[in-house]
Amino acid sequence: MIDLPGDSAALKAMVLSLLTECDHHAQRAEQQAQRAEQQTQRADEQTRRAEELRVEMLRLQLELERYKKWYYGPRADRLQSTGDLAQMLFDFAASMDQKPVHPDDVPPETPQDSEVRRVRRRKGRRNLANFENLPATTHVHELSAEQRACPCCGTERQEIGADESWQIEYLPGHFERIHHVRKKYACTACENGGGKPSIETAAKPEAAIDKGLAGPGLLAYIVTSKFSDYLPLYRLEDIFARQGFEISRATQSVWCGDVADLAEPLYQLMAQRVRSSHVVATDDTIMPMLSKGKTANARMWIYVGDDDHAYNVFDFTLNRGRDGPKHFLKDYRQVLLADAYGGYNGVVAGNEITRAGCWAHFRRKVVEAEKAAPEIARSVVEVVRALYSVERQAAALPVAERLKLRQENSVPVVTELREKLLGWKEQLLPKHPMAEALNYALSQWAELTVFCSDGAVPLDNNISEREMKRVVLNRKNSLFVGNARGGRTAAILASLTSTCRRHDVDPQLYLTQLLTNLPSVRLSDLADWLPDAWKRRQAASPEGPPK
Predict the structure, then answer these.
(1) What pairs with residue 299 in β-bridges?
(2) Which of 116, 157, 223, 400 has the greatest number of CB atoms lying within 10 Å of its CB?
(3) Which residue, 459, 491, 509, sits at the end of a domain?
(4) Secondary structure letter of residue 263 according to DSSP
(5) 479 and 343 both lie in a single domain
(6) Mutual angle of helices 233-242 and 249-274, in 10-degree steps
(7) Position 116 in a domain
(8) Could you say which DSSP state residue 130 is in?
(9) ∠ at Cα 315 (509, 476), nearest 5°?
(10) Do 207 and 343 lie in a common domain?
């Protein structure tokens, strides 16, 4: 039992002391709770920071892997997990191959096995394409009179047959001087009578370059070498010098510009027909251009027409602004197939253009982020692979049947994929590499699903990307263009050679005939000299298609 004081003042002092002590305990408890809360907040902050650092580390690792792939890796977009499995199987097979084989483990050889190996073995010369179409020169090798004498009796041996064999030889190209002599004619009777002599000079074929030394064949060879075989002009200069006549790269560059000026009406006609396509595929890449201080990042664009307007048209601009495609597509009102570049938004805004997206770009982003979320990457790639499987089945079908097949097989797959993308997005941090890949698809979902409502729209934009790779090859060898006119020249001549490649036309033969005839062609007949029309005309000629 507690002994309380009888004095009220002492009792009051005791109560105040107890209240003060309780307040101190409460304050200490509150401080401890605050410290615990602060520690919890610091722990949460450290956890959040650790997660952010982990995501940032993943981003840096993926960026490093991306650069390593650009420089050293394969071009195909494949998951590394699949490649790791294939490598394991390869290593297992290699290790098994190195192990010694016991004679008792080898099955006895049967006559059928021997026959199979005999049939599969390939002897003699391989089948070379177009071997029979090459011109042939026969060289007959005979014994001399002394060699024909029989070593036994000395009688001259008689011919009893011949052994035949073939050899392929290459004869280097050569230059020729073509001397044009234009005879002049005058009327001597008029001249003797004091009148005008009526002088007339014989005509010669009109030259591709007015008062120029280069003939159509030489111009076609230079253009084909640079814009179809990607040889820079300084290498052509060395090649020509080895053949006995040096042509400076500056002169070749001027000639290319002259050819582009001559072919520009044909280029404009090709661009007009591309704009008549139902689907136009487009892409762009950097085309460095010389300028003061440092090279400027100009751009080269590609516009690929559909099968009914099968032309590949390049366009050169000084920057990547939307003004370039907006000007080229100013009269276009159908489907534009492109990547997610934001500049196309201004092109399609306010008009009737339907923008379609590229599933190959989405798959590439997912593959690049594979290490950050392998399970998600595998699931997405399987879905995309299923879509491409449908496209392989529909490749040869008409547009209406292709659309029906897509709606039956691809639409359910795409719908299910979107639900999965939304669920995965909720599980990942906003800056997670895989979250960025998923956001690419979700933000472009309307564009990516255009192919589900239009059977003529491809699943990806690979057709234009392949043409961009050819520009990159030319850029790698030639480094840059000298000025805006040089970029325009490259666009015109690359359009011609790329369209020739699309129609399986020999660009050098086509350009030789084009430059021979184009100076005298009327504008109304210009369409006859498009690469596809030229090929049809050559195939219909009595001599048949060009060899």
Answers:
(1) 286, 317
(2) 223
(3) 459
(4) H
(5) yes
(6) 130
(7) no
(8) T
(9) 75
(10) yes
Global pTM value: 0.77
Last residue of a domain, one of 432, 459, 486: 459
Structural domain includes residue 272 = yes
CA atoms within 13 Å, Cβ hemisphere of 249: 14
pLDDT at 36 over 90: no
Yes or no: say if 365 and 440 are a contact pair by the CB < 8 Å rule: yes
Same structural domain, 333 and 480:
yes
Same domain, 380 and 467: no
Total domain count for the chain? 2
Residue 388 exposed, middle or buried by CB count within 10 Å (0-12, 13-18, 19+):
middle
Q: What is the pLDDT of residues 312-334, one digit of tens each?
A: 999 999 988 888 888 899 889 99
Strands 335-337 and 279-289: parallel
CATH code of 294's domain:
3.30.420.10
Residue pLDDT, tens place only, 501-517:
999 999 999 999 999 99
Contact indicator for 474, 230 with CB cutoff of 8 Å: yes
* More confidently predicted of 447 and 115: 447
Residues 369 and 455 in one domain: yes
Any domain includes 382: yes
The range of the structural domain enclosing residue 387 comes to 358-459
pLDDT mean across residues, the chain: 85
How far apart are the C-alpha atoms of 412 and 400, rounded to whole Å? 18
Distance CA 310, CA 502 (A): 8
Residue 72 host element (H or E): helix 8-72
Mean pLDDT of 41-45: 84
Structural domain includes residue 87: no
**Single-letter amino acid code for the residue at 198:** S
Pair 431, 515 in one domain: no
CA-based end-to-end distance of the chain: 124
User: Which pair of tokens denotes residue 5?
Assistant: 């004081």
- The C-alpha atoms of residue 489 and residue 202 are separated, in whole angstroms, by 34
**Residue 173 phi/psi, 5° resolution?**
-65, 165
Residues 325 and 387 in one domain: no
- Please state, in angstroms and rounded to a whole number, the distance separating the CA atoms of residues 386 and 52: 34
Side chain identity at residue 360, one-letter code: A
- The long-range contacts involving 98-102, CB below 8 angstroms and separated by at least 24 positions, are none
Q: What is d(CA 189, CA 340) in angstroms, rounded to the nearest whole number?
A: 79
Widest CA span in the chain: 167
Question: Residues 504, 408: one domain?
Answer: no
CA distances from 41 to 28, 32, 38, 291 (A): 20, 14, 5, 55
Q: Tell me if 267 sits within 8 A of 528, measured CB to CB.
A: no
Angle, nearest 10°, between helix axes 359-368 and 8-72?
A: 120
